Amino acid sequence: MSFLGERLSITPPDNLGTKYREEEVERFVVECMMSQGVPRANATALAEVLVAADVRGHISHGIFRLDMYMSEVMKKICDGHATPTIIKESVSTALVDGNNGLGPVVSNFCMDLAIKKAKATGIGWVCVKGSNHFGIAGWYPMTAVKHGLIGMSFTNTSSLVVPTRGKNNIMGTNPISVAAPAKKDDSFVLDMATSMVSGGKLEIAHLKNQPIPEGWALNKHGKPTTDPKEMLDDGSLLPLGGTELYSGYKGFGLGMMVEIFCGILSGAPYAHNIRTWTKSTSPADLSHCFVALNPAFFANGFEDRMSDLMDHCRGEEPDEGGKAIQVAGDPERAHTQKVKEDGGITYPITLVKTLWQLAKHLDVTPMQSA
Ligand SMILES: NC(=O)c1ccc[n+]([C@@H]2O[C@H](COP(=O)([O-])OP(=O)(O)OC[C@H]3O[C@@H](n4cnc5c(N)ncnc54)[C@H](O)[C@@H]3O)[C@@H](O)[C@H]2O)c1
Question: Which of 228, 239, 291, 309 sits most deeply, having the most CB atoms within 10 A of its CB?
């Protein structure tokens, strides 16, 4: 945690647990947000996305980010009460103003709108400006999958990524998610930053005092680094692929594609025009794009073929490492199963302590371990 946490000085007890049930994490997030006047429905929308991130194994985008959302609401940079409005629409498209609401509140509205349009016309394509950080990109396409639709989401973010051949960060980590339904509750869920990894993975590595693999990041002098702190201290992430030799220009291109769908289509700030990450005194003014596509408007048997494709890939012979082949969404499915078997989500103790301090600071009941 990087915002409120550093300002809190109350010493937490030594006997805090590290495992927490999903319902308890959700209760805590909702109460923290409501303590700052955020309506329960909006606080719940945020809590659900954060808990889903933790359950799926992306703790960089779960409750770890709570103090960022809290901080922005407390400083009135983000409006916890706001709900989105439609600026203009056709049968299959819409441009929405997020009115500076919480990212998940704005994004659920837009994905639901895209789903409604896709059911009626085959496709719903919704762009939104005036939003805030929406959490894991995969949350929204997974909603479309529950309706038997293909879902996609995209968002721009503050610049952390250096372009191929460049020195300065001009592109966000701009994630892409595409999810598609298969048979028996199976689904494909690609959810990925267009940089080597999300910036959050470096924050978590720093929290755990661990090095990062070579090839992910540069320090502020443009030199490769394996120290996450060096990247977080005005360094850069490389686009997906890495350096030019390893086709990093493809990740750079994908980051730009996200901007075409987000900042450029919605007429909002894009790339280098977006405010600096964490040094925030003004609204984030992020934009997102949500797409729902209805397979029923195409060839029959979509889910059968999806299952066949995914199962074929999974059943292919592994390399000498012997590990089974996975398709996008499988690692998160395995993590979800592990959380279920463990009876809760396990957090690093440093994070648990910060959350306890946050609870005391806000006069909210701290999370009770499982
Ligand atoms: N809101 C934001 O501003 C923002 C910005 C960047 C990233 N994010 C989020 O951060 C999270 C992490 O992003 P990331 O790019 O670091 O994710 P990642 O690299 O861990 O995973 C990316 C994708 O690869 C798949 N995958 C992983 N291992 C695999 C394997 N061995 N075989 C097949 N598929 C595999 C995963 O299922 C996932 O779909 C995502 O949820 C993303 O939406 C959010």
Answer: 239
State which of 51, 189, 191 you would mutate to test the pocket of ligand 1, scoring each by most atoms of that ligand within 8 A of its C-beta: 191
Tell how far the Cα of 300 is from the centroid of ligand 1, in angstroms.
Answer: 30
| Residue in this structure with the two tokens 């490769």, named with its chain if needed | 224
Q: Judge if the beta carbon of residue 193 lies within 6 A of ligand 1.
A: yes
313 lines ligand 1 (CB under 6 A): no
Cβ atoms 63, 29 nearer than 8 A: yes
Q: Where are the domains of the chain?
A: 1-76+333-370, 89-196+238-297
Report which ligand 1 atom has the smallest distance to the Cα of 190.
39
Residue 225: Cβ-neighbour burial (10 angstroms; 0-12, 13-18, 19+): buried
Q: pLDDT tens string for the chain (370 positions)? A: 444 555 567 889 999 999 999 999 999 999 999 999 999 999 999 999 999 999 999 999 999 999 899 999 999 999 999 999 999 999 999 999 999 999 999 999 999 999 999 999 999 999 999 999 999 999 999 999 999 999 999 999 999 999 999 999 999 999 999 999 999 999 999 999 999 999 999 999 998 899 999 999 999 999 999 999 999 999 999 999 999 999 999 999 999 999 999 999 999 999 999 998 766 789 999 999 999 999 999 999 999 999 999 999 999 999 999 999 999 999 999 999 999 999 999 999 999 999 999 999 899 999 999 9
Region class of 101: left (phi > 0), else alpha (psi between -120 and 50), else beta: beta
Report the nearest atom of ligand 1 relative to the CA of 60: 10
Q: Looking at the domain that runs over 89-196+238-297, which CATH code has it been given? A: 3.30.1370.60
72 CB under 6 A from ligand 1? no
CATH class of 1-76+333-370: mainly alpha
